[in-house]
Amino acid sequence: MRVVVLTLLMLFLSGTLSEDGGEDNRCQTDMCNILKSLKAIEARLNATENQMEVMRNIQDAVAVLQRTDEEQERKLQVFSFWANVTQLKLEQEQHMLDVLKQQNEDKPKIALAGNCHISAPEKETILPFSNVYTNVGNAYNSESGVFSAPVRGVYYFSFLSFAYNGHNACISLFKNSERMLSACDHHSAADSSDSAGNGRTLHLEQGDQVYITLHARSHIFADNQNRSTFRGFLLFRT
C-alpha cells in the first residue's frame, strides 16, 4: 500500500513540475530532490518487500522441516521402543537356552539298545540282550539282561520280538518283580512269521531294575537286521 501511495505522489509531483513556469523538462531543485528521494524510498520499500517475501518462504521451509523433524523423532521413538522390546525378548530367550543347556549338561546320559536270539525255554526266562550297540551310562548288564536305574526319573522302554517257522513270540517287560506289559503273536497257518512289540514309560527310583522275559515255549530270532530288540532311555529326572 505504501508503494502505491508513493507512486501516486511521484506521478502528481511529476505532473506539477511539468506545468510550472512554462519551461518544459525543467523542475525546481527542491522538488527534484524530493522526487529522487521518493524514488529511492520506493526502491528500498520494494527491496524490503522482496526480502520479506524471501523471509516468509524461509519461515515456511523451516516450519516444514520442523514438522518433518518431529515426525522423524516420533518414528525414531517408536523404532527405539520396539528395538528395546526385541532386545528384551532376545535376552529372555538366551536365558532360557542357557537354562536348558545347563539342565542338559546336568542330566545323566542314559540309553540302551540291543538284540538277542533264544529259543523255547521250559520256563519264563530273563532275556539277556548280549548284542548291545548302545549302553550310555553303563546301566544295562548284558550278561544278566537287567537294566538298573542309576538315577530317579521317568524312563521310556520298548521291545520287539520276531519268530518264524511256526514259533510263537511272547515277551514281557518287568519292573523289579512286577510284570508291567506284554506282547504276544501266535503262529497261524496263514502267517508263518510272527512279530510282537510294546512300550511304555516307567517312573523308577534309583536302583530299580527293568528287564525283558521270554515266556515258556516261546521263541525269538535275531540277526544283523535287529529283528528282536530292547530299548530304553531317561526322559527326565524327578
UniProtKB/TrEMBL annotation:
Signal peptide span: 1-18
Subcellular location(s) of the protein: Secreted
Boundaries of every C1q domain copy: 105-238
GO cellular component: extracellular region
Alphabetized UniProt keyword annotations: Coiled coil, Secreted, Signal
Keyword Cell membrane among record annotations: no
Coiled coil: 38-75
Record-linked PANTHER family: C1Q DOMAIN-CONTAINING PROTEIN (PTHR22923:SF116), CEREBELLIN-RELATED (PTHR22923)
Protein name listed in UniProt: C1q domain-containing protein
Gene source species: Esox lucius
